[in-house]
Write a structure and sequence with these properties.
InterPro entries: AA_ABC_transptr_permease_3TM, ArtM/GltK/GlnP/TcyL/YhdX-like, MetI-like, MetI-like_sf. This protein is mainly alpha-helical. The chain is built from eleven helices and no strands. Helix 3 (57-92) runs antiparallel to helix 9 (223-235), helix 5 packs across helix 6 and helix 8 (181-211) runs antiparallel to helix 10 (238-270).
């Protein structure tokens, strides 16, 4: 039987079985869709007057788009801060010094163990409760703080695992050239770990984007706040509004996933194999190799040895 790279090519019986399973699955999905649509129709949720507001420009410009902008603003700032938090504490957990490694691990495990909603509540109400004074924390700041602490702690583990996943021979080759630990980390480990970490990082960014909806409970006027509170309050169309807002969230997340795919492909192409010697351009004059070129050559040599 001929084989592909990842799995055995199915034979006639396997193809027939797969086709039957696909057909049955399609019938089940269509049946569920029919029951959902018929149920909405029976409850009067498909009436034109309930969907008409989403054909009006003032609903989009006055509610949905401002909510979408608020969601993206909180998600973008939280993503940047969470990445910085993750890099700092992820590398801190890899430190050789216990006085750095242990506090970093304690911070990561602490914020990773607390539900995100509690972090958002504490960020808004905590300063006033602890100080005894009326300290107003804006809802936007509370959402950003909560998202940063929780997702940054998760990303710290992603960065740590990504660096540890690089074969040990890579770092040993760098040390044999006299590179410091920071040089090995910057020139050898992080460039290789980034490609492996990219899917997990983007997945966490999608989670972060969806978690901005928790700002609704502290009156942050983001997309879900408009979709499930303000629009239904004005037009009495909760279910249609929830469906439209869900479609908007799906579109944003699909765009983010597509961006992740593009970035990952570019990262892999930029780290592709070097051109053969006969096809390479004119060589530069001989001279002492720089630290960066030495690190890159060590990675290539150790990869061939392994």
């Amino acid at each position: 039987m001929s084989t592909s790279v990842l799995f055995d090519v199915p034979g006639p019986r396997a193809r027939l079985r797969n086709n039957i399973i696909t057909l049955v699955s399609a019938v089940v999905v269509l049946g569920v869709a029919y029951l959902l649509i018929s149920g909405l129709a029976d409850k009067g949720q498909l009436q034109g007057r309930l969907w008409e507001p989403f054909l009006r420009a003032d609903v989009w410009t006055g509610m949905i788009i401002p909510g979408l902008v608020a969601t993206l603003k909180a998600a973008a700032l939280s993503a940047v801060l969470a990445l910085v938090f993750g890099v700092v504490f992820g590398l801190g957990r890899l430190s050789d010094h216990a006085w750095i490694r242990r506090p970093a691990g304690a911070v990561v495990e602490f914020f990773r163990a607390i539900p995100l909603l509690l972090l958002i509540f504490f960020a808004q109400a905590g300063p006033a409760t602890l100080s005894g004074y009326t300290v107003g924390v804006p809802a936007f700041a509370a959402v950003v703080i909560g998202l940063t602490l929780y997702n940054g702690s998760v990303l710290a583990e992603v960065f740590r695992a990504g660096v540890l996943a690089v074969p040990r021979g890579q770092s040993e080759a760098g040390y044999s050239l006299g590179l410091s630990k920071s040089g090995v980390m910057r020139l050898i480990l992080l460039p290789q770990a980034t490609t492996a970490m990219m899917p997990a990082i983007i997945s966490q960014m999608v989670v972060l984007l969806k978690d901005t909806a928790l700002g609704w409970v502290i009156a942050y006027e983001e997309l879900l706040n408009f979709g499930l509170k303000q629009i239904p309050a004005n037009f009495g169309n909760l279910i249609p509004s929830a469906i439209v807002i869900s479609v908007v969230y799906i579109g944003i997340n699909m765009a983010l996933a597509h961006l992740a795919t593009v970035l990952e492909r570019r990262s892999r192409r930029s780290r592709g194999p070097a051109a053969p010697a006969g096809l390479a351009g004119p060589t530069a004059p001989a001279g002492p190799p720089s630290a960066e070129s030495a690190g890159i050559s060590v990675v290539a040599d150790s990869a061939r040895v392994e």
